[in-house]
Specification:
single chain, BirA Bifunctional Protein, domain 2, alpha+beta, 7-stranded mixed sheet, two-stranded antiparallel sheet, about 20% strand, about 40% helix
Length: about 325
């Protein structure tokens, strides 16, 4: 066996236990590096007689090609094993995926819409930039009313403003002239309020309207009682306190019995047994006449409630500003 054959046999022996790319690279340097075994044989060509150099050089080239080929084959084998090996380490602890959630205000709004849809109410939307006519005049709000002041309303110019309630949607729906009307209009509204735990310049309301022949205050009470019992539980009771709203006459504030204490009094209801929920009343005949609805033939009721108000009560949140700070640590609590 020639000395070069012995080198090849030695190389094959050294190649067998190689099972990593790092070990393969070390073997390549050992044989083909600058100080490698095969490289050293090439350096010994110089002292040979000229007649022997061609044959010896050819043998060395064949050895180098063989070593290089075997190194490439083993590299491909190692890569194939690596690809076939599972990429997931089953011994590692799992990582909980980040799953998105609906904002608590969206959750409350969707719940409200489901209840009213079950009662036959449609869901209507309208522009958030309104005119003074739709936001005030058409809702029977006189020029002297404080709600029209810049201290309470965001005006864009003399006529346009950011709507202060979603009631303008009711006017737009009634203007279509299709009766009866049974609708709610959820959406964002704007008031020039300084932020504090119970006030924010942007919040959400749901306004409701039902106009048909023979609609009475008893229909209003029955509708709201059914809604709040669906929302807070079957034992919920309502009370109506006389109030004033330009859009309705007669008007009333609506209170619901505290769902937490059952009306006995607790921290949530400030020990009164009642939760203030919103306004309501019979649609003022002037509003109906202004949209060409005969108030002698048709009557209707309207109501409004705040989504933030319900969210604060439902989730036990004591500061409305938390709903708008976009703190994921806070929002992830609500599923």
């Amino acid at each position: 066996m020639s000395d070069l054959d012995k080198i090849l046999v030695q190389f094959e022996g050294d190649l067998q236990p190689v099972h990593s790319e790092q070990a393969l690279e070390e073997l390549r340097v050992r044989y083909l590096g600058k100080k490698g075994i095969v490289t050293a044989e090439f350096k010994m060509l110089g002292p040979l007689p000229p007649a022997q150099k061609p044959a010896r050089g050819a043998e060395l080239n064949m050895l180098k090609e063989r070593v290089t080929a075997r190194l490439s084959e083993r590299r491909e084998e190692l890569q194939a094993v690596k690809l076939a090996r599972p990429t997931i380490d089953l011994t590692m602890p799992g990582r909980r995926p980040q799953v998105g959630r609906l904002h608590p205000l969206t959750q409350i709004e969707e719940r409200i819409k489901r209840i009213f849809r079950a009662m036959g109410f449609s869901v209507e939307t309208g522009p958030e930039i309104e005119t003074a006519f739709y936001n005030f005049t058409a809702l029977n709000t006189p020029e002297w009313h404080p709600a029209r002041d810049e201290a309470d309303t965001f005006y864009l110019d003399d006529e346009r403003l950011l709507r202060t309630e979603t009631s303008p949607v009711q006017i737009r729906v009634m203007q279509r002239g299709k009766l009866p009307v049974r609708m709610i209009s959820p959406g964002r509204v704007y008031r020039n309020d300084k932020p504090d735990p119970s006030h924010f310049p942007v919040f959400h309301q749901v306004e409701g309207l039902y106009v048909d022949k023979g609609v009475t205050f008893a229909d209003l009470k029955g509708t709201l009682l059914f809604f709040y019992r669906q929302l807070f539980g079957p034992d919920t009771q309502l009370r109506f306190r006389p109030h004033y709203f330009p859009f309705t006459e007669p008007s009333a504030e609506v209170d619901a019995s505290c769902y937490l204490c059952g009306g006995k009094g607790c921290r949530l209801c400030k020990h009164t047994g009642w939760l203030e929920m919103g306004g309501s009343g019979m649609v003022d005949p002037n509003v109906l006449e202004d949209v060409d609805i005969d108030s002698e033939e048709y009557t209707g009721f309207a109501f409004g409630l705040g989504i933030e108000r319900i969210a604060l009560l439902w989730y036990g949140i004591d500061d409305i500003r938390l709903l708008y700070e976009n703190d994921l640590r806070f929002l992830r609590q609500f599923t």
